[in-house]
Amino acid sequence: MTDAAGNRYVLRRPPTSHLLPTAHDMGREHKIISAMGPAGVPAPPAMGLCTDDSVNGAPFYVMGFVDGVIARTEEDAEASFDLEARHRAGLALIDTLAQIHSVDPDAVGLGDLGRKEGYIARQLRRWYANYQAANDARGGSILGDVEDMHDFLLAHIPEQGPASVVHGDYRLDNCILAPDGSSVRAVLDWEICTLGDPLADVGQLVVYWPEPGERSALGHAPTIAPGFPTRAELTARYAATTGRDLGQIGFYVAFAYWKLACILEGVYSRYVGGAMGDDGFDSSSYPDTIAWLAEQSKAAAGLSEDR
């Protein structure tokens, strides 16, 4: 949105229909960015929250517009950054994640955002329930790999260290970057942020970080372009910066693949149900992608030879 003086803002609201349970809580998301910005984390400025449905048909909030680069695809990365800027952008991204995980949730007023312990078990329960609800809504059939990996992950949860704020969907295209790649200007899409195990964010970022020549979990990825740090560089830098042990990162990568399969099932269900509008989007690849993600989860856990 742009006002009469030329100032720009962003209005964020839920989808128009087919909402999954617990999804798209605008008040909760507004609370998070209101707390994280003053704590030093690059987040969009929180301008105001409206919970009166009569105004806009649903709760919504307004945040300040942050100018910069959002690179969603390989082509975006190549057009926006030179090789050195891509490398800087990758390092800035992992450093910002470490910064998010350094915030004391109690000190910034987010101590009640969620239970601090048992994060992975809660996530497994939540996303499996959402997967089942979305699958039922579109009349699909439960994938055996999704079901099997749910049971495997539940039985092999690592001991959780100190809890932190967990973004839940941290990746390059959920951030606004400086044009030279030197910094993250704003982290977006805090919708599924909660408290819990910070290594879940690291595992998710690994899943979202295909290297040149690899298949992307989302069908597109800026990191396929040359110049970005490798996954090994990112995880090593995070471990060195935070002092956290990444010895069981394979579990968190497996969990992240599995969770993304569940999330995409929800997105696919909303497209099938017409909630995303008639935008010409081709959703025909979703079933294959969801199955592939479940297979990758098995591979990351060492249960499959497929990569």
SSE run: EHEHEHHHHEEEEHHHH
Morphology call: globular
Q: Termini distance? A: 44 Å
Major sheet: size, sense and barrel closure? 3 strands, antiparallel
**Mean pLDDT over the full residue set:** 92
Total number of helical segments? 10
Helix content: 40-55%
> What class do helices, strands and sheet pairing give?
mainly alpha
Spans of 5+ residues with little confidence (pLDDT < 50)?
A: none
Q: Using the CA coordinates, give the radius of gyration.
A: 19 Å
State the strand order across the main sheet.
1-3-2
Provide the fold topology.
Blueprint: E1 9-12, H1 26-36, E2 46-50, H2 53-56, E3 60-64, H3 74-80, H4 83-102, H5 119-137, H6 144-155, E4 164-166, E5 175-177, E6 184-187, E7 194-196, H7 199-207, H8 231-242, H9 249-272, H10 286-300
Antiparallel strand pairs: 1-3, 2-3, 4-7, 5-6
Descriptive report:
There is one protein chain. This protein has helices at residues 26-36, 53-56, 74-80, 83-102, 119-137, 144-155, 199-207, 231-242, 249-272, 286-300; strands at 9-12, 46-50, 60-64, 164-166, 175-177, 184-187, 194-196. The protein contains ten helices and seven strands. It has a domain at 119-156 and 247-307. A hairpin with a 6-residue loop joins strand 5 and strand 6 (184-187). Helix 4 runs parallel beside helix 8, helix 5 runs antiparallel to helix 6 (144-155) and helix 5 (119-137) runs parallel beside helix 9 (249-272). A three-stranded antiparallel sheet has the order 1-3-2. A two-stranded antiparallel sheet has the order 4-7. 43% of the residues lie in helices and 9% in strands. The radius of gyration is 19 Å and the shape is globular. The longest helix is centred in the C-terminal third of the chain and has 24 residues, at 249-272. The chain starts with 8 loop residues before the first strand and ends in a 7-residue tail after the last helix. It is mainly alpha-helical and 307 residues long.
